[in-house]
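Collaborator request, handled under Task 6.
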Amino acid sequence: MIPSLMIANRQTWFGSGSIQHLLPLLQSEPQATLLFTCRSFVSGAVYSDLADELTPLLIGREIVEHEASPQEIDRWVARWRGKVQRVVAIGGGSVLDAAKAFAALVEHPLPTIRYMEKVGDCKISGATLPVIAIPTTAGTGSEVTQNAVITDTQVTKVKASLRHNNFVPQVAILDPQLLNGAPNRVLAYCAIDAFTHLFEAYLSKTASSLSREMSLTGIRHFLNAWPTLQSSDEAREAIMQASYLGGLTLSMAGLGVIHGIAGEIGALRDYHHGQVCGRLLLPFLELLDESEHPQQRALMAELALRLFPEERDYPARYLFDFITRNAIAPFWQDALPLNGSELAIILEKSNSKNSWVTYSSAQRQSMIEGAFPIE
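Structure tokens returned to the collaborator:
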């Protein structure tokens, strides 16, 4: 039996209206607190209701516009080093990752890029400020992961993480009401990212019985939520649970070829990460349908038996049909091109780490060409 390590928040609040716990948390232990957030949140009704009481508890705020670059994090660190004791992050995955990276690097002496996986030359320590993470999307699971994703599209052209067990936010507040008002495409992109986390973690060769059970629970939540994300409070609650479980299971079991490719695309093109993963998922399911690998076939049979037994003969085909037939936004139809030189870079750098199958360059190219037009 493969051993399993699960690292989670010290406190996790879940449920509609749970953001109301933020103010008492800050008031119970007054500290110099910096807010990382996004424009959509600060222009919305929830922030408007909180602002009068929240603002006096903060020393400032930073607005995150997109996936943070090493250069942006270095500027935030220079601005706030020695002034901050705690970080609150309210927003999507990019906001949470930026806040987690800042909280760690404000406690480290060197520039961000020196500590990044893939390109850094220094080992990061576990020193970090405490983080309270409040997601306003349901996809990345960043509120419960050990890593902070950083994207450098200018210098190194790499998308990589800072990673340490201490970087899991101390507190997570999961309020499904914060998904209200999100465009259908954002809900769909984030939800399919959550599914991909759960699915790849389930299929991982490093998964344990515990992580697989958690993945199956999360996939069940996804299947229940996916058709009615735009109209159902129950669906949004279910997808927020799926996202959280995806964060836990990807940390426990790792991800596979979809994210191995998606990370390299994200370093070259400013496409929504969830949409990239969703588009790669579809040709991956076609590969999986044809797979003769015994462990993959056994895992897919078990997944079907547990979640949709009437479709147990062709589980990958069923998932392909279910996802495309019930999508509230057709994430696979937008024109998102790649060029030939980008394709070559992606094939050179991508991998199928944690997968039972080591996917060849030809198989990965088939997935990419099935998901993106090549110019």
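The cover message to the collaborator said: "Residues 233-253 form the longest helix (21 residues). The chain has two domains: 11-178, 182-371. Please let us know whether this matches your experimental observations."
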